[in-house]
Design a protein that fits this description.
Elements (H helix, E strand, L loop, with lengths): L14 H12 L5 E8 L4 E4 L5 E2 L5 H14 L7 E4 L11 H6 L4 E4 H11 L2 H11 L2 H10 L11 H6 L8 E2 L1 H13 L6 H11 L8 H5 L3 E10 L8 E12 L4 E11 L3 H18 L1
Antiparallel strand pairs: 1-2, 1-9, 3-6, 4-5, 7-8, 8-9
Helix pairs in contact: 1-11, 2-5, 2-6, 4-5, 4-9
Amino acid sequence: MLHAADWQSDQLFDTEVLRAELVRATDGKYARIGVAVLTDGNDLATVNGDKPLPMLSVYKFPQALAVARYCVDNGISLSDTIEIAASQLHSDTYSPMRDRYGVRGLRLPIAELLAYSMQQSDNNACDILFDLIGGTGYANDYIHGLGFDDIHIVSTEDDMHKDTGLCYANSSTATAMARLLRYFDTTLRNSAPEYEYIATLMETCTTGTDRLARGIGDDAMVFGHKTGTGDRNAEGKIIAVNDVGYVHLANGRRYYIAVFVADSGYDMDETSALIAEVARIVAGFL
């Protein structure tokens, strides 16, 4: 289903024309694609924007927001260290942190765990942060408490590793994610240093350069994002390749973009190129 905002103000682009271009770029592709583009002026253009799709590591962004909230509420500094048991450093998952420190007991600052999770999609770091805040339920309740009921955080990285079907349970609509990005960028990041640190991580992230960043090019004065990448499912399709982010333009305007590509029948490079093409189209309108 295609949506356009019915409450536009200070319109930055023609939602009908942009939507038509996005449909042409995504229609007939061997994948399930959800796109949402939202501006600070409430312009909204989507393709399948209300369809729940697997977030994969994109969910480490709302999780990080929950970690920030937990720290603020409990008087915990991001510089505080937490104890990590060797049993929390799983050897059968993607973890640059484990590769650096080895499988042993250690203590690391929360800030470093967030950096590993947000910038390198470290699965062990992500689950250690879930352990810190009391599980996925805390993150899910926090995000729903903000009003984003279409974002669901229910499975840890270890859960998804043991049952890849659970990758689909951690879901979001493209529209909900774009709205969360806007709320973060315009409200949360200014409310506490813990949130601003998350913005810094997103804006200095160097992964996923072949996705949104490739399409946006040099138009962005500020660009912060979080990617998500999956393995292939039982049908041989890539579970998801995603990228979501916010863009500040030189003219002072901002926009928020979420692109989810699920069950892709293409290879990784081709799927990433789909995201880059969507971003290129959007940048051309702004």
